[in-house]
Amino acid sequence: QVQLVESGGGLVQSGGSLRLSCAASGVTMDYYFIGWFRQDPGMEREGVSCISYRYGTTYYTDYADSVKGRFTISKDNVKNPVYLQMNSLKPEDTAVYYCATDVGRHGSCRLGPAAYASWGQGTQVTVSS
């Protein structure tokens, strides 16, 4: 069973940075998508960034327009977590951030939540103005 654990959230001032981590266990295949999503209360879950990963190599990434140039998704190797480096944070980035994975997928990852089968519990990010 795939399990995902997010960490790294917190309170930061506008313009600051945070790095979120998503540690996965129980992934038995060598190719998968991992995505980062966020959700405010009363709002739909929004795709932030995603990564297509295959045999230890990242071969595709995507970002929501709202975070392009500010956020960077990365995964160094098979054992390391997936990171979301968030720079130049804005109050509108405040949300609970979730990571999710869909194991056994090839091609370009998607930012739609419906494409992902396994989810973490989320980590709160709060950006003060």
Question: Which descriptors would you attach to this protein?
Answer:
11 strands; 129 residues; seven-stranded mixed sheet; mainly beta; four-stranded antiparallel sheet
Q: Please tell me how large the radius of gyration is.
A: 14 Å
Order of helices and strands: EEEEEEEEEEE
Query: Which whole number gives the mean pLDDT?
Result: 94
Determine the number of helices (DSSP H or I, runs of at least 4 residues): 0
Number of strands: 11
What's the main sheet like? 7 strands, mixed
Low-confidence stretches: none
Principal-axes shape call: globular
Distance between the termini: 40 Å
* Secondary-structure-derived class: mainly beta
Strand content: over 45%
- Percent of residues in helices comes to under 10%
Descriptive report:
Helices cover 0% and strands 53% of the residues. With 129 residues, it is mostly beta strands. The mean pLDDT is 94.
In short:
This protein has 129 residues and is mainly β. It has strands at 3-7, 10-13, 18-25, 31-39, 46-54, 57-63, 71-74, 82-86, 95-103, 118-119, 123-128. The radius of gyration is 14 Å and the shape is globular.
Summarize the topology.
Layout: E1 3-7, E2 10-13, E3 18-25, E4 31-39, E5 46-54, E6 57-63, E7 71-74, E8 82-86, E9 95-103, E10 118-119, E11 123-128
